[in-house]
Amino acid sequence: MKIRKTAGLLLALLMLAPASWAKLSAHEEARVQAMLTALSEQQGLIFIRNGSEHTSEEAVSHLRLKLKNTRNRINTADQFIDKVASSSSITGKPYTVRIPGKGDENAAPFLHRLIAESDAKVK
Q1: Distance of CA 66 to CAs 11, 36, 62, 83, 90, Å?
Q2: 25: number of CA atoms within 13 Å, CB side?
Q3: Where are the domains of the chain?
Q4: Residues 83, 92: contact at Cβ < 8 Å?
C-alpha cells in the first residue's frame, strides 16, 4: 500500500514538473513584447492564418493571446516563434506574411528577423 501511494505521488510530481520547468524569464518576455510591438508597426503587412488575411494589429492581438496561453510552456522568445507564433495550433499549417513589395514568406523567418532587429532595444 505504501509503495502504491509513493508511486502515485511520484507520478503526479513527474506530470507537473515539466510545466514548472518552462517559463519565460523577464528578459525573454521583453524580447517577445518588443517583437510584437515591431510587428504592430509593420504598415501594409498582411498576416495569413489558415487562409484568412489579417492586419498586423490583428496578428499581434492573436499572438498575444497565444503567448498568454503558452508562456509557462516555453523558455525563450525563439521558442515562442518556432513553437507558437509561426503556425496554427489547430491545423498545424504555417502562418504566412505578405510584405508589401516583397511577396509572401513563411512567418517564422520574418518573426526571427523582427526579433533580431528588436533585440537592440531590449537590454
Answers
A1: 29, 12, 6, 11, 12
A2: 4
A3: 22-121
A4: no
C-alpha cell at 19: 510545466
What global pTM score does this model have? 0.79
pLDDT tens, position by position, 40-70: 999 999 999 999 999 999 999 999 999 999 9
Cα separation values, 73 from 23, 46, 68, 77, Å: 6, 28, 10, 12
76-102 pLDDT, tens per residue?
A: 999 999 999 999 999 999 999 999 999
Q: Please give the full DSSP string across 22-73, using - where no structure is assigned.
A: ----HHHHHHHHHHHHHHHT-TT-EEEETTEEEEHHHHHHHHHHHHHHHTTT
